[in-house]
Amino acid sequence: MIRESLRRIIALIKKEFITIWKDPKSRGIIIALPLMQLFVFANAITMEVKNIDVALIDSANTVESRELLSRFEHSPRFRKFYYAENEADLKEKIDNQKVQIGIYINNDFSTNIKRGNPAEVLIIADGRQTNSASIASGYANQIVNEYNNYITGIAPQIAPSIRNWYNPNLEYKWYILTVIVAMLALVITLLLTALSIAREREMGTFDQLIVSPLTSFEILLGKTIPPLVIAMCLTCIMTLIVITAFKIPFMGSFLLFFVSIFISLLSIVGVGLFISSICKTQQQAILGVITFQMPAILLSGFISPIEDMPKFLQYLTLINPIRFFMLLTRGIFLKGMSFHDVFINWIPLILIAIITLSLAMLTFKRKLD
Questions:
Q1: What domains are defined for the chain?
Q2: Regarding predicted confidence, which is higher, 231 or 207?
Q3: N or C: which end of the chain has fewer CB within 10 A?
């Protein structure tokens, strides 16, 4: 009995692999696209703000004002400097996004410095790009503060000593690439699983599955293993590329990492199969993937920290497998998470996998009946 069941499951698994591999579009989606996206996103997505263009108005035009502006010009963060003729010209350059920030020095700048009065330097940032504006303003404010300490001769009483753990040089690629591996694995796994049953319905082979000796459990198992194997292989390839091509150090255990990938992908496979079981066409399945994918990414902590979200959204993230997938990939990669910390994140993923796979099987079984 068990041998016959295994034989049927293996036959279905072979059929799934052949179906995926024979389709040129599927081959491109599962092989070429993720690897291409890995290289593109690694260079396109950046948390750094550099090459900042600046518009300047120096109404004072004195030694002090020129010395302050020279500090901006020698900073590696700033790229091009445009001397605006007047306030309207400065406003136009910001409106047209020719510059990210504007610096306005009043004509009484040097006079106030010599008298010991506060000398104002106006820093105008383009708030349409909130993150860039905040960081660029911070850079400008730091330069102004350093110049202020220089002319007053007063050294800061408290000198902070900053050390960055797990990413000493704050390389954005260390953060981005470890997350992108999880994101791309999510997309591929969801697409393959969500389209599997829907594809059978469109091709007219779903009825053959129904009348075959396969049980609902065997069908779901046969539909689960191929996407899981493909996603595991792709994740391993992407991880190897991240380590070798991008020189990102791997600080943790490979065994814990691959087990974590397996459990994470299993939970995502459950979501994909549940979507596929309730969809009649591949178009509906794709819409279902998009409906799940965007909120899952936004609520994973990738865009903004989970701690900054409203309380009800923080609780909602507890049923999001991507949250724990990202924590595991980043934590094992950069931090070298211990088994205890890894196991704590396995628990919700295992629960999500059990619930989603059970729902998929119940839904699929009900439709078979």
A1: 50-150 (3.40.1710.10), 166-364 (no CATH)
A2: 231
A3: N
